Amino acid sequence: MTHDDGHLIQATLRGDSQAYGKLVQKYQDRLLTALVHVCSSRHEAEDALQDAFVQAYLKLSSFAGGSAFYTWLYRIAFNTAISRRRRRRDESSVEQNRELTGEEPEDDGEGVDENLLRQERAVQVQRALGKLSDEHRAILVLREVDGCDYDHIADILELPVGTVRSRLHRARLHLKEELSAILQAEGSEDGYG
């Protein structure tokens, strides 16, 4: 835990709500980016993040400081997102996903074909992620999207490092299978398969 986080936590516990607001500002963007990939919807991720910050505030006195505050907060946010996802099992279509995330492609100087291909691949990966179990999805997002190392993932998910490694391996295999199935289905729809 950073000294700054510790100071803000203590101030919050003494009743300084502005101190907690600073913690929220410090971590909200980073957490939201990860949760969008877990929830497959920016709106759902924002709701999960808000719930997680409320839960963290209510549980703040139980934070023992054994791990970084961000790790503790991340665990709450992921558990919240997964719980919400389990309650809302319905799958959304690609078009609905675009509507919900509100994200439009940015012009980065690439040709139209390259940009469209990259967007299509991103949608395919997102669809494949959506078909994975919550455990596999969470571990892939932590490793591949947020760039967490194995020890950090183990702390967040409260798992032994060996379990993280094996679960990540299985998650990658399942993602590959789902992507293959999506590509095959799209190929047959286009008359190429």
Automatic annotation (TrEMBL):
Record field: compositional bias (Basic and acidic residues): 89-101
Domain named RNA polymerase sigma-70 region: residues: 23-89
GO molecular-function terms, A-Z: DNA binding; sigma factor activity
Comp. bias intervals (Acidic residues): 102-113
Keyword entries, A-Z: Sigma factor, Transcription, Transcription regulation
GO biological processes: DNA-templated transcription initiation
InterPro entries in the cross-refs: RNA_pol_sigma-70-like, RNA_pol_sigma-70_dom, RNA_pol_sigma70_r2, RNA_pol_sigma70_r4_t2, RNA_pol_sigma_r2, RNA_pol_sigma_r3/r4-like, WH-like_DNA-bd_sf
Location of the region described as Disordered in the Swiss-Prot/TrEMBL record: 87-113
Assigned protein family: Belongs to the sigma-70 factor family. ECF subfamily.
Name the record gives this protein: ECF RNA polymerase sigma-E factor
Species name: Anatilimnocola aggregata
Phylogenetic classification of the source organism: Bacteria, Pseudomonadati, Planctomycetota, Planctomycetia, Pirellulales
